[in-house]
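Record type: monomer structure entry
Structure origin: computed from sequence
Chain ID: A
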Amino acid sequence: MIFENMGFYFREALLSFRRSTLMSIAAILSITTILLIVGFFLLISVNLNLFLENLESQLEIIVYLEDNISQAELSTLTNNLNSITGIKEVKFVSKEEAYQRLSKDLGELKDILSAIEKNPLPASFEIQIKDPKTIEQIANQVTKFIKVEEVEYGREIAERLLNFTYIFRRAGMLILALLVFSSILIISNIIKITVYARRNEIEIMSLVGATSWFVKSPFIIEGFLQGFISSVLSTIILYNFYFFAINKVHQAIPFLPLVVDKVDLLPIGIAIVLLGSLVGVLGSMFSVGKYLNV
């Protein structure tokens, strides 16, 4: 029965839009503003998370080797390193390459190396890991291999960075949860105001024998439309502003990592549309029920 009357409910919802145009526009603008605030925070959170991941990805393990390591031992060690779970990439740096890097880093001061008769730098492995949280565990495993002279990963710096990113992410999740909760309350109250303005209409329909769903359905559809239109408007504004802003940021700070792929941003748009539509439906449903005498 509900689905058979869906066309009627939609027509009634659209008529309500026309009868209370100013109220509907005010509700849509208010909800759009709230969703814009949520969307801005989501965009900031996504980019901050990318920045933190970029910082974490720079954590690496340096494995310095003994000078007397043979080619066979080097091959065995390479295989052992590649077999460790959690290692993303293993790169060998020969003594000669390490010397060239040092010479390049010294720049104009590289002439001081001419006083050194023999290359004092050891060969090494540079290890990138998949999960920064496992860096200490992997470093401890590598230390046990033969022909490994020293393992270095900046323990204190790594621990501080991981603690910082952990706290920052948890704080971001808490703020986001509070913001979404506040948005739900505010949007629900905005819907309630629009329903309150027509409370007499609801009570009269209830008194003449209209069923609960017959009264509720047009309001629920109207609330859905208000939430959906608001969420689409806020998504369009957000995306246009965001890509304009990141172009300006890239011009000023080209090396700053930012989310630029529209596919990566799609979940934010979907989340905003779902939030606006769902809150619009639920807000209307509960608000109308308050004035029903059934």
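Annotation 1: The domain at 60-152 is CATH 3.30.70.3040 (Alpha-Beta Plaits).
Annotation 2: The chain has a mean pLDDT of 81.
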